């Protein structure tokens, strides 16, 4: 089967390689055509030709605005478009309507591993959109990574993608901020980082597999006096003061402290730290 990939950044190139390895012929188009060099795919001269070459077109672009730049004016009737670019759930829903108005089926998705891991063990991606469309495309999509279908709402895959990256990006900023904090005191990053990464891997030990935490958050019940919002909030304030004293960007610890302050002000001081959820979601 011929598959089209539009967008040849690191991710689109990795997808193209995975699809070729899976035995498909692949037609590609990219704004900067040189990025197709050496891939072994067929470079289409225009987006119109690229979409026309296959029933299934996969987009791997910086955002959804790029999709409109590329596909405006391109005949889509009868095609299936799978957009694996990052954007908001709202942008996905709007795109789904835009594509449907042009007579094509649409799936949205988010690839949850870095480009070099695409097509390998542990790779997976979230998808949403009409189930029948997903089931038709799945045998191709599974070459990118395991497929996790979330439901018909085209915004769901982006919601899950963004929520996972919320965890990821916040953790990455935390690691860099903490490293800057010790570096400001003359400690080499190499002395600090292995231990800091251990702290990250301690989190699952603290919250388990998430089931108990999920039940607490659902119920709005935050028992326990080992890690209260008051105690953790005091530490959050110490981190902020340490950062300010060291001249290290205080934005991140200030945001964290604000969660504790608001939880305490709302009467959750003697509850478990999970009570922050109550002020975050309101
Ligand atoms: P890049 O930013 O490297 O590539 C984006 C692609 O979009 C390029 O092909 C670029 O074309 C094209 N593009 C951007 N804007 C336009 C436009 N206005 N018109 C035409 N083409 C445009 O991104 P990646 O390949 O790294 O990622 C692609 C998507 O996958 C992103 O949404 C990213 O969030 C997601 N993703 C990436 C991961 C990774 O490891 N890289 C991991 C998980 C998800 P040109 O080459 O001409 O600039």
Automatic annotation (TrEMBL):
Q: Which segment of the chain is annotated as a signal peptide?
A: none
Domain named NADPH-dependent reductive aminase-like C-terminal: which ranges?
153-281
**What InterPro entries does the record tag this protein with?**
6PGD_dom2, 6PGDH_NADP-bd, HIBADH-related, HIBADH-related_NP60_sf, NAD(P)-bd_dom_sf, RedAm-like_C
Q: Where is the 6-phosphogluconate dehydrogenase NADP-binding domain?
A: 3-147
Origin: domain of life: Bacteria
Residue spans crossing the bilayer: none
Give GO MF terms, alphabetically.
Answer: NADP binding; oxidoreductase activity
Check the record and name the SUPFAM superfamilies matching this protein: NAD(P)-binding Rossmann-fold domains (SSF51735)
Q: Which UniProt keywords apply?
A: Oxidoreductase
Q: Which family does it belong to?
A: Belongs to the HIBADH-related family.
Q: What is this protein called?
A: 6-phosphogluconate dehydrogenase
- The organism named in the record is Virgisporangium ochraceum
């Amino acid at each position: 089967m011929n598959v089209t990939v539009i967008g040849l950044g690191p991710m689109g190139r990795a997808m193209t390689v995975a699809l070729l390895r899976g035995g498909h012929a692949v037609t590609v188009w990219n704004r900067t055509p040189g990025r197709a060099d050496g891939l072994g795919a067929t470079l289409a001269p225009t987006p119109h030709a690229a979409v026309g070459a296959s029933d299934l077109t996969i987009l791997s672009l910086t955002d959804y605005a790029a999709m409109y730049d590329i596909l405006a004016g391109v005949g889509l009737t009868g095609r299936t478009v799978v957009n694996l670019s990052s954007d908001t759930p709202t942008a996905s829903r709007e795109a789904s309507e835009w594509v449907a108005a042009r007579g094509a089926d649409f799936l949205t998705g988010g690839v949850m591993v870095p480009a070099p891991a695409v097509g390998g063990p542990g790779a997976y991606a979230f998808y949403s959109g009409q189930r029948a469309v997903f089931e038709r495309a799945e045998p191709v999509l599974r070459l990118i990574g395991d497929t996790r279908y979330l439901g018909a709402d085209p915004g769901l895959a982006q919601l899950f993608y963004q929520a996972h990256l919320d965890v990821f990006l916040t953790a990455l900023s935390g690691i860099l901020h903490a490293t800057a904090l010790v570096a400001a005191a003359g400690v080499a990053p190499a002395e600090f980082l292995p231990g800091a990464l251990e702290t990250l891997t301690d989190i699952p030990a603290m919250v388990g597999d998430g089931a108990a935490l999920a039940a607490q958050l659902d119920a709005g019940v935050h028992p326990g006096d080992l890690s209260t919002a008051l105690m953790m909030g005091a530490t959050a304030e110490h981190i902020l003061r340490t950062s300010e004293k060291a001249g290290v960007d205080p934005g991140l610890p200030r945001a964290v402290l604000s969660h504790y302050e608001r939880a305490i002000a709302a009467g959750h001081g003697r509850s478990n730290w999970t009570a922050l959820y109550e002020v975050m979601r309101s």
